[in-house]
C-alpha cells in the first residue's frame, strides 16, 4: 500500500472569463446537466475545511471493512481487487489533500488537508505492517494454480502490494514492525518540515549591503528579505549577495536534514537493505545504486571536455562585461550562459511571447493530441464550490471513439501563497470499478503564469510554453494509463520512467512543424518564422553541457546522502567536496545549498531520474517521432507500449517494447550527449 506523502505518495509524481480560451476555438464549452454538487472536485464533504475530517473518517471506516474482507476472502483475483479498493479508498482522500495542502488559497483548508495527509499516511504505514492482511496476500502468491490463471497485470499488482509490505518490514517481529511504523511517520513529518524550510527567506541587516543594490531586495524595517538567488540579475554583486545570503547555513534546517537522512537509513537497514538508495531503487529502470553510479560516472566523463569549454566561454564573457572580477563563480553560471545564448542567437524572450498566447498554445496541444492520439480537450463548466480559485479551468479529455477519459483542472496563474512551481497532481486514479464502470482519473496541472493585463491574452515565454507541454505530458499519461487497478494507474509508476512522457513533450514543443501549427502573433496573426524557432532550439545547446553537469552533481550528491551511513563527513563538507570534484565551480564558504534542495523530499535517492528519463525520451523522439511528429500509427504504438500500462508493467520492458531493442548504460549516456550537438545548418547560418 503506497501512501500519499511527499516521500511515498500515490501521486507520482510531483483569470476570469476568456483568458485561457482566447483564440482557442477548439476548446468549446460543453454544458452538462448534472446535480449541482458542492465541494472541491465535486466531493460533497469538501465544501469547508472541516469536511476533510469527515472524508478522512469515511475512508478509514471503509478501509477497516475492506481489511476484514481481504482477510476472509479465499485466494483469487478478488483478493487483488479488494487490495486495490483499499488503496483507492485511502488515496482518494490523501491524493486530493496532497494537492490542497500546498495550493489552496485558504489557510484553514491547507491546514486541514495537511492533517488528513498525516493521518492517512499513518494508517498506510500501519496497514503495511499488518501481518494478517499480508498473510491474505501471501496465500494468493503461494498458490501456483491460482497465480498461473491470473493475467500479467493482476499478477504484477499482487507482487507490488507484497513489495510494499516487504519494504515496510512485514517480516520483522512485532517490536521492530512498530519501530518501522514510527520511523515512517517521523520521516513524513521531517519531510514536511524540511520542505517548508527550503522556501523560507533569509533576512540580513540592510546596512551590511552597499546602498546601491538594496532596492533589489524586499525591505522589512532595518532588514532586507532575500527569497531567492536573483539568477537573472545583470549585476554581479546582487547575484553574489543573494547567493551568499539565501544559501547561508541554518542550524535548524541542517538538523532536520541530518535527522531525515539518518531516519531513512535506519528504516532501510531495519527492513533489510544496505542503504536507503537500495530500498528506494527497487522496481525502477536503474534497479540499484550501482547502476545509477555507473550511469552518472560515464555521463560525467563524456561531458568533461564540453563542460570545461562552456566554463571557458562563460569566463571570457564575464571578463568582457566585468574586467575587474573574472573568476567564474556558482552564481555566474545561469546568468552568463543566458547572456551567451542571447548574444550568439539573438534570443530575446520578448520577441517570442506575442506568438505564444495561452489560448494558442492550448489549441496547439489540442491539435497535436488529436492528430497523434485521437484526443480532444474541451472546457467544461464547473459547479459552485468545485474549484478553489476563480481562474481555474476544467478540461474534459475525450477520445474520438472511446469517449470521456478523464478531467484536467488547470490551475495556471500566480496568486498569493501559491508555490512558484510547475507540477502535476493526481487527485483521483483511474480503475475498473466493481460494477463494471471505469472510475475516471482526475488531475491538476499547476503552473505559475503571470496575470495578464485586462482585455489582453496571457503571453507565455518560450520556457513557459515548454513547461506547459511538459506538464501536459504527465496529464496524458494519467488519462491514457487506463489500468484495471488504480494502484498502478497513469503516473503511479517508477520515478525514472514517470518523467519520460513529460520530457518527450518538450521535444514536440521544440519542433518547428509542431510549433508552426499554433504559434501566431496575437495581434497580426503572423506565424512565428522558422529561423526564430531554429535559433531558439540551437540556443538551448549553448552551455548545455555545463547545465547537464550541474544536474549530474545534484544526482551524485543525492546518491551520497542516501548511500552508506554514517556519512563520513557533514552534509556541507560532502557538498563542498562533491561540488568541486563533479561540478567544477568552487564551493562558497558558509553556504549550504543542500538545505534548499527540496527534491531530497520527493526524489530522495532518485534525482538521477530526470537525466535517465531524458535519455529515454531522446531515444523515443529520434527513433519514433523525429521524422514525422504527427504520425498516428506511431502515436498509437506509443500509447500501447508506454502509456497504457501505467506502472502495471516493468518500466524497462515498456521502453524496450517502444524502441524494439535492449538498452545499455552506454545507450542512455550517448542519447544525452548526442542532444548537445548543434544542428549544422542552423549553426552555420547563425555563426
TrEMBL record:
Biological processes per GO annotation: peptide metabolic process; protein processing involved in protein targeting to mitochondrion
Keyword list, A-Z: Acetylation, Calcium, Cobalt, Hydrolase, Iron, Magnesium, Manganese, Metal-binding, Metalloprotease, Mitochondrion, Protease, Transit peptide, Zinc
GO cellular component: mitochondrial matrix
Broad class of the protein's primary localization: mitochondrion
Enzyme class, first EC level, given as a word: hydrolase
EC number per UniProt: 3.4.24.59
Domain Peptidase M3A/M3B catalytic: 230-672
InterPro entries associated with the record: M3A_MIP, MetalloPept_cat_dom_sf, Neurolysin/TOP_dom2, Pept_M3A_M3B, Pept_M3A_M3B_dom
Reactions catalysed, as given in the entry: Release of an N-terminal octapeptide as second stage of processing of some proteins imported into the mitochondrion
Gene Ontology MF: a single term: metalloendopeptidase activity
Location of the protein in the cell: Mitochondrion matrix
Cofactor(s) for this UniProt protein: Zn(2+)
Function: Cleaves proteins, imported into the mitochondrion, to their mature size.
Assembly mode: Monomer.
Family: Belongs to the peptidase M3 family.
Name of the protein: Mitochondrial intermediate peptidase
The organism's taxonomic lineage, starting at the top: Eukaryota, Metazoa, Chordata, Craniata, Vertebrata
Gene: MIPEP
